[in-house]
Backbone:
């Protein structure tokens, strides 16, 4: 239909939308955070299990559009087993990517780069950011900076 | 249309003729010549805001280029002209919506401001703890939040009249909810999500028989652009609507209120324009409508709104209603051919304004709206400022196509085609 649209709806994104990863509730989460986008009604529940500064496990359960669901699924996949400090770096890198800015030196975004096409659709940036801003809230509760 | 006071002349250059012809009307709306993503725009977001006819835009430009001055107190020529144009616009719009007298019409910023004005000025003077305000499950946030704010401040109770599964107000439940405790009944004339036109005259009469002193408030924002609306025939004490949803400019709206209500209501905002006399000991207030128009009003947009209703009179609101019913019928019929869609609201187009909200079980409304936009089709996705209604429907969001006087059956076909393309694009059966 258009190149920009193809860049937004990449096959990887649609795959994460149809089969979200890390969507099972955790038995003993340390923190549970609800995310909500009042403009569009998208909502999600994010749970973290953090031990010694490392995200041992996490869960993201989304109810929303393909972009917010895929973003949550990719977040869960990218951060499981990662130190909290690295999660914070990826969070900053993800925000920079959607703002069209270069990531910090040496930061590898990995699979998260497939969401880079969202920056060409300003009204959809909030959809992609919702899991990440929810993560930010959750991290501030589990381990304040 | 019968007009009880003379219409001003805005040098109208439109010639709509007797027969309704959307193709001819399209030529009056410059923005419709635009292309979006390489396609001619199919603008189906009219319930959010309509496009503006050249006539309206010209009135706005002419006001600023030839007549601009402050109103009501100036002795010079421009001030007199600006005052005349402003008060002529009031007469014109008041006649258009069936007010008895121009003084019954207060210019506001929009419908939301009208409802807030009532909740603050009338509500604070006349409501006490335990008094009930009855609204419906299909209200826009503008007719929910001001009453909730008053409830938090004054301890009044907000009651909700439910809807049935076809999106109509539940009449039996409504009757059970009205009692002598009901001091306000405030209803949307047509739902901006369901399209349902409520039988408000009957509902207000029922409320009055259960509670004789009840204040009946009507939000006519979605009906004024789609059908003839006669304030005095609807049994309400007050009615609000927005200019920009009826082909007029943004930033101007109206609150129409009966003389009895206007007299019983203290001012809303205090300042210039709304006073009679100000001394160090206190102030006395101007008579309505100026009592409720503090400060320099939005003169230019009021004048352009006057020009807009002149245009709508030429088109003819009876014809507009026929057109809108035809489009509603055709849209319902065509959308029903896509089996994955749930379309909300009554099946009968005679009970609807021309809009259709729908939910595709496979494609989220935001994805749909993005992919439609790339095909030049503008629809809205979200809760449409009616979150309690979205909850009642059991969906986080819906997509909405809403039609105006310039939309055609061909555009309904383009919408349906674009939805099929979107489904295909995301890997579903078209």
Residues:
């Amino acid at each position: 239909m258009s190149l920009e649209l193809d860049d937004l709806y990449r096959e990887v994104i649609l795959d994460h939308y149809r089969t979200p990863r890390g969507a099972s509730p955790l038995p003993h989460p340390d923190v549970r955070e609800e995310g909500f986008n009042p403009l569009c009604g998208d909502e999600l529940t994010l749970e973290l299990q953090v031990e010694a500064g490392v995200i041992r496990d996490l869960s993201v359960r989304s109810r929303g559009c393909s972009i917010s669901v895929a973003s949550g699924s990719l977040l869960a996949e990218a951060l499981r087993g990662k130190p909290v400090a690295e999660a914070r770096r990826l969070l900053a890198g993800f925000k920079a990517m959607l703002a069209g800015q270069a990531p910090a030196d040496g930061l590898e975004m990995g699979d998260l780069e497939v969401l880079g096409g969202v920056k060409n659709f300003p009204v959809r940036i909030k959809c992609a950011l919702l899991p990440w801003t929810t993560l930010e809230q959750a991290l501030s509760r589990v381990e304040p900076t | 249309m019968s007009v009880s006071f003379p219409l001003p002349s805005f040098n109208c250059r439109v010639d709509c003729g007797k027969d309704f012809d959307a193709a001819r009307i399209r030529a009056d709306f410059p923005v419709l010549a635009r292309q979006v993503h390489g396609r001619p725009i199919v603008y189906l977001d009219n319930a959010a805001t309509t496009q503006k006819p050249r006539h309206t835009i010209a009135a706005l430009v002419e006001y600023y280029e030839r007549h601009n001055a402050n109103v009501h107190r100036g002795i010079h020529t421009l001030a007199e002209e600006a005052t005349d144009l402003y008060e002529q616009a009031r007469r014109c719009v008041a006649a258009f919506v069936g007010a008895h007298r121009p003084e019954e019409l207060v210019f506001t910023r929009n419908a939301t401001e009208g409802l807030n004005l009532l909740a603050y000025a009338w509500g604070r003077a006349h409501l006490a703890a335990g008094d009930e305000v009855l609204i419906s499950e299909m209200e826009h946030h503008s007719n929910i939040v001001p009453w909730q704010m008053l409830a938090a401040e004054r301890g009044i109770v907000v009651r909700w009249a439910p809807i049935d599964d076809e999106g109509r107000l539940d009449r039996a439940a409504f009757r059970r909810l009205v009692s002598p405790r009901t001091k306000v009944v405030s209803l949307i004339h047509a739902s901006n999500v369901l399209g349902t036109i409520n039988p408000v005259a009957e509902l207000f009469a029922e409320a009055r028989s259960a509670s004789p002193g009840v204040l009946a408030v009507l939000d006519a924002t979605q009906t004024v652009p789609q059908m003839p609306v006669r304030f005095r025939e609807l049994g309400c004490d007050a009615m609000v609507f927005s200019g920009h949803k009826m082909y007029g400019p943004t930033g101007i709206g109206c609150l129409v209120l009966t003389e009895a209500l206007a007299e019983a209501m203290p001012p809303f905002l205090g300042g210039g324009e709304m006073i009679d006399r100000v001394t160090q000991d206190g102030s006395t207030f101007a008579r309505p409508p100026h009592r409720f128009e503090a400060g320099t009003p939005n003169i230019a947009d009021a004048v352009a709104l006057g020009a807009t209703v002149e245009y709508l009179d030429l088109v003819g609101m009876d014809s507009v209603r026929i057109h809108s019913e035809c489009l509603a019928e055709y849209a319902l019929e065509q959308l029903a051919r896509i089996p994955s869609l749930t379309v909300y609201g009554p099946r009968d187009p005679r009970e609807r304004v021309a809009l259709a909200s729908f939910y595709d079980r496979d494609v989220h409304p935001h994805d749909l709206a993005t992919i439609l936009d790339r095909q030049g089709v503008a629809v809205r996705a979200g809760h449409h400022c009616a979150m309690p209604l979205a909850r009642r429907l059991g969906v986080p969001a819906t997509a909405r196509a809403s039609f105006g006087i310039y939309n055609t059956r061909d555009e309904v076909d383009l919408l349906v085609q674009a939805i099929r393309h979107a489904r295909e694009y995301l890997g579903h059966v078209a």
Remarks:
- The first strand of chain A starts at residue 31 and ends at 36.
- Chain A has a mean pLDDT of 92.
- Chain A has one domain: 3-142.
